[in-house]
Amino acid sequence: MGLCESCCVSEKRRRRRQQQVSLQQQQLLQQRQSISQNAPAREAGGVPAFSEYSLADLKAATGKFSAEFIVSESGEKAPNLVYKGRLQNKRWIAVKKFPKMAWPDPKQFAEEAWRVGKLRHRRLANLIGYCCDGDERLLVAEFMPNDTLAKHLFHWENQTIEWAMRLRVACYIAEALEYCSSEGRPLYHDLNAYRVLFDEDGDPRLSCFGLMKNSRDGKGYSTNLAYTPPEYLRNGRVTPESVIFSFGTVLLDLLSGKHIPPSHALDMIRGKNILLLMDSHLEGNFSTEEATALVDLASHCLQYEPRERPNINNLVTTLAPLQTKSEVPSHVMLNIPKQVEAPPTPQHPLSPMGEACSRMDLTAIHQILVATHYRDDEGTNELSFQEWTQQMRDMLEARKRGDFAFRDKDFKTAIDCYTQFIDGGIMVSQTVYARRSLCHLLCDQPDAALRDAMQAQCVYSDWPTAFYMQAVALTKLDMHKDAADMLNEATRLEEKKQKSGGVY
């Protein structure tokens, strides 16, 4: 066979290999999409889609509704108990348990829950599911780990809420109400400081539980009559204007740091005793102009005649310009640590490579890849004598230069050299893809790193290192659930190979 014919054969094989790798990558992407589609549905912001839960799942999550899991402010004396729980997927939830037969018709309860479950907003502690089983009626919501506004205002231990944070609470809750109203859910039952919750970032959110009545025919308000809208006392009906009145009572709480009856507060406002209304624990650290605006808004919300109260849009329009310290995170203003959910524990013991990837220790990963060299590439390339052309020698020289650069931590040069080797197309090497993936990570290019790690998997579908590198890249892309899945798959493959005496 002549040199030209040999080159022609070499080029055909190169193209065939490129087509095979491209097809494998497409299949891998389709497989990944299929897995994603079959996983539990998720919506924007990582909130699960609304769904029905089994009673067994909720019992397991809450320790069989153990008293130690109760988070209701009144404990076991609360009319509707709320429990915290943790599902098998490690997600924390809040479960509201209604008394038996509060909603006799399960279909009616489910329909109402589904209507509320359609709502999704960053200012809501969103409803993510429900359960109807026999006489049991339960709602499932996102769990908010940093207590209620009532706890921070009335029962604080270290420090009271600073003024800027109180303004943020008022605005965020108004935004939540505005969203609910725009989505056709303008009625909120018994809005008060206990319905305002703080999430893991310290941001205030409105509990979704108030969007449903406590029972099919039950009362819309369970608080002291002194804080109840006057029209509700007359006809027992909750209206959009009633919600505005209740929002006014929350504004009073924010201003005073106490639970003051609206009639008493209005007397103070009419008497121009605004300073007497203000929380003394603020020690004067507030803007008089902002406080006056908040007092004025509260006064309008608490008007006796519903038609004289502002509408939902007016609340947001008034409160938005009062926001200060917008650059300061809520958890800083509340003086609480930001809670970060720990990644799920891998299902198998971690090897040194696994440990390095779990810690995101790129230096340790580099050392392991250098030490491993190309031992995992054995058998992935079968080359005929005719393919040892000058082009082949050039490719191997490019890989050799890349290896030197990789060893010496000149990662940009390594990327260039490894790219030259890969583009040659005569040989495929999962190790080169893994090394170039790490180089991309060290050059802050996680998207390119993920592509290379997936290519390494295409070349060698059961290679743990390919999954490890995907785990690291996915973590860099803030795709933590997918990263945990890749880490578990890598450790499973390592365990499998160790049992069979193979290398990894």
Automatic annotation (TrEMBL):
It is an enzyme of class 2 (transferase). One of its GO terms (cellular component) is plasma membrane. It is a lipid-anchor. GO terms for biological process: brassinosteroid mediated signaling pathway. One of its GO terms (molecular function) is protein serine/threonine kinase activity. Pfam families: PK_Tyr_Ser-Thr, TPR_BSK1_C. Residues 68-334 form the Protein kinase domain. Gene3D superfamilies: Phosphorylase Kinase, domain 1, Tetratricopeptide repeat domain, Transferase(Phosphotransferase) domain 1. Its EC number is 2.7.11.1. Keywords: ATP-binding, Cell membrane, Kinase, Lipoprotein, Membrane, Myristate, Nucleotide-binding, Serine/threonine-protein kinase, Transferase. SUPFAM superfamilies: Protein kinase-like (PK-like), TPR-like. It catalyses: L-seryl-[protein] + ATP = O-phospho-L-seryl-[protein] + ADP + H(+); L-threonyl-[protein] + ATP = O-phospho-L-threonyl-[protein] + ADP + H(+). It is found in: Cell membrane. PANTHER family: SERINE/THREONINE-PROTEIN KINASE BSK5, SERINE_THREONINE-PROTEIN KINASE BSK1. This is non-specific serine/threonine protein kinase. It comes from Acorus calamus (Sweet flag).
